[in-house]
Amino acid sequence: MSSIMSFLPFVAVFAIMYFLLIRPQQQRQKQLRNELKTLRRGDRIVTAGGVVGVVQKSREDAAEVEVEIAPNVRVMVLRDTITTVLTSTAKPANDAAQPKK
Asked: Which H or E run includes 45?
């Protein structure tokens, strides 16, 4: 019985670590993967290098995303290097001119 009681603190510490550190990180990674899958034109992102930009071209099956980091300055960024999606557009931006009524 005493061996079980001496092992109990280790189990308690692991349970606390799991619920305070491991599980929230797993949920955040899952959320980021979902955001990267639904990345659209007009979304503001932050790369692993700290570069903030606006997505200009994105395809679901492509590993690269075209990002505008300054006016008329576009770079190709690997989708895996995007660490944060700052703002997400509710609907995709449309390049076509809107019909005048």
From this structure: strand 44-47
pTM of the model: 0.67
Among the listed residues 53, 60, 52, the one whose alpha carbon sits nearest the alpha carbon of residue 79 = 60
Rounded to 10 degrees, the C-alpha dihedral 52/55/56/59 comes to: 140
Residue pointed to by tokens 């955001």: 35
57, containing H or E segment? strand 52-58
Chain centroid offset of residue 49 CA: 14
CATH number of residue 43's parent domain: 2.30.30
pLDDT tens digits, one per residue of 28-56: 999 999 988 888 999 999 999 999 999 99
Q: Residue 69 falls within a domain, yes or no? A: yes
Q: Which of 68, 66, 60, 57 has the alpha carbon at shortest distance from 36? A: 60
